[in-house]
């Protein structure tokens, strides 16, 4: 099957920002304008993550999410600061098709995955993993790569799958925003461990990086931020390149 | 002639917003159905689908929507779970009775690929109909773990890792699609426009 090419907006309302290693935020634009731009370029999906909501412990800004959703006729996943079934419900009603969750389930209440899967269906639950590599394992981080989650990524992905998550968004604190390639070793391990789709993010610096990731790790999707934000390539370029090189997952 | 598309709002799981927006883009007028008496105000019905078979049916029952849907004689389009719950029986979180509009069952997809099946995929039209007019060669967005089985009034199949499953059905005034037209770019808008014009 064709690998989904997903545009990822890391948002610090009211701006899309782009951190390097999840830090040093730079403004890159307006969320709904960028969403429309990537939709027009042929994105298969869009991910919107309010990256400071958990960190600042403030309420989710649902209006911002609704404005982005309004521009799109493709799947839209939204997250950042999700803490309750009510948050899931509001996100979905604002036009999100999938809800992305990390901090709350790692730190406090993993049971919410089971509950949400039962109510909304597994397909609506995306668990975001912010992995950091240590000498011989990867640790889950939370709050936009700030806080150590004290969970082993490879154990955690199995757990969330069993609990009913429908998809993994796999990000790497080490490679994010550097545009020097993905953590392919981690991606391969996670894809092989679980039966649910894995979307890999963090590290695309070139078309070759994306090709290498897909050919080695076989993810279901690739989420791209910096490479698109700085107009180095378009989604159309990526799809054409993968198609010409016959890259399939 | 009035032509109002009713969108069944059941429970906390629905993606009413997306459907409403897409139907309006396709040129339709919409009415979100919040109570049983609303069914008499609309000319066509869309049953959206986000959530599980079990909770979906429970919500329809709580809202007293089961009878009005079963008795609705004008065209109905079920989307994803909205198509699945037209069946007799669903096997998601136990065994649940469906709307029983069509003789089919809904079961977990068993195949070599990752589940849920997520992403854009082609439809292979088996029996052309008005709903699929002009979109036969397009790709649509799928997001599901369950599929309709033991069913014969199939208009399209879709292949996922060599596993073929039912992606569109049609029987009388009932239409169903496993994919999400509201998330399938212009092809989806075209399909909704075909439904509006029925």
UniProtKB/TrEMBL annotation, chain A:
GO terms for molecular function: imidazoleglycerol-phosphate synthase activity; lyase activity. It is an enzyme of class 4 (lyase). Its EC number is 4.3.2.10. It catalyses: 5-[(5-phospho-1-deoxy-D-ribulos-1-ylimino)methylamino]-1-(5-phospho-beta-D-ribosyl)imidazole-4-carboxamide + L-glutamine = D-erythro-1-(imidazol-4-yl)glycerol 3-phosphate + 5-amino-1-(5-phospho-beta-D-ribosyl)imidazole-4-carboxamide + L-glutamate + H(+). Pathway: Amino-acid biosynthesis; L-histidine biosynthesis; L-histidine from 5-phospho-alpha-D-ribose 1-diphosphate: step 5/9. Coiled coil: none annotated. Keywords: Amino-acid biosynthesis, Histidine biosynthesis, Lyase. It holds the Pfam family His_biosynth. SUPFAM superfamilies: Ribulose-phoshate binding barrel. One of its GO terms (biological process) is L-histidine biosynthetic process. InterPro entries: Aldolase_TIM (IPR013785), His_biosynth (IPR006062), HisF (IPR004651), IGPS_HisA/HisF (IPR050064), RibuloseP-bd_barrel (IPR011060). IGPS catalyzes the conversion of PRFAR and glutamine to IGP, AICAR and glutamate. The HisF subunit catalyzes the cyclization activity that produces IGP and AICAR from PRFAR using the ammonia provided by the HisH subunit. Belongs to the HisA/HisF family. Heterodimer of HisH and HisF. This is imidazole glycerol-phosphate synthase. It comes from Candidatus Thioglobus autotrophicus.
């Amino acid at each position: 099957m064709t690998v989904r090419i997903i545009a990822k907006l890391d948002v610090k309302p009211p701006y899309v920002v782009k951190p390097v290693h999840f830090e040093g935020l730079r403004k890159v634009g307006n969320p709904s304008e960028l969403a429309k731009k990537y939709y027009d370029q042929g994105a298969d999906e869009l991910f919107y993550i309010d990256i400071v909501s958990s960190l600042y412990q403030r309420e989710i800004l649902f209006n911002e999410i609704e404005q982005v959703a309004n521009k799109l006729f493709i799947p839209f996943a939204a997250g950042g600061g999700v803490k309750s079934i009510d948050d899931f419900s509001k996100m979905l009603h604002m036009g999100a098709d999938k809800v992305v969750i990390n901090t709350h389930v790692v730190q406090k209440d993993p049971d919410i995955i089971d509950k949400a899967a039962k109510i909304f269906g597994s397909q609506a639950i995306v668990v975001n993993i912010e992995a950091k590599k240590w000498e011989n394992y990867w640790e889950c981080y939370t709050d936009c790569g700030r806080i150590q989650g004290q969970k082993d990524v490879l154990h955690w992905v199995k757990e969330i799958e069993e609990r009913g998550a429908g998809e993994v968004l796999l990000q790497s604190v080490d490679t994010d925003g550097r545009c020097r390639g993905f953590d392919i070793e981690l991606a391969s391990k996670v894809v092989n461990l679980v039966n649910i789709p894995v979307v890999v993010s963090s590290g695309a610096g070139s078309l070759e990086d994306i090709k290498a990731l897909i050919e080695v790790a076989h993810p279901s999707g690739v989420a791209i931020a910096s490479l698109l934000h700085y107009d180095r390539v378009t989604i159309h370029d990526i799809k054409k390149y993968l198609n010409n090189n016959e890259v399939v997952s | 002639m009035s032509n109002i598309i009713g969108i069944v709002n059941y429970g906390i799981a629905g993606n009413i917003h997306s459907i409403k927006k897409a139907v309006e883009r396709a040129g339709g007028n919409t009415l979100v159905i919040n109570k049983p008496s609303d069914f008499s105000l609309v000319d066509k019905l869309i049953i959206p689908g986000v959530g599980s078979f079990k909770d979906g049916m429970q919500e329809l029952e709580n809202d007293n929507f089961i009878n009005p849907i079963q008795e609705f004689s004008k065209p109905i389009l079920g989307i994803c779970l909205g198509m699945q719950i037209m069946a007799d029986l669903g096997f998601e979180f136990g065994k649940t009775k469906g709307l029983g509009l069509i003789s089919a069952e809904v079961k977990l997809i068993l195949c070599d690929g990752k589940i849920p099946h997520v992403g854009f995929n082609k439809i292979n039209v088996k029996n052309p109909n008005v709903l699929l007019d002009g979109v036969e060669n397009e790709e649509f967005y799928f997001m599901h773990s369950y599929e309709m089985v033991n069913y014969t009034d199939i208009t399209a199949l879709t292949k996922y890792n060599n596993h073929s499953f039912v992606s569109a059905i049609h029987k009388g005034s009932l239409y169903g699609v496993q994919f999400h037209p509201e998330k399938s770019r212009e092809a989806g808008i075209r399909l909704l426009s075909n439904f509006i014009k029925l």
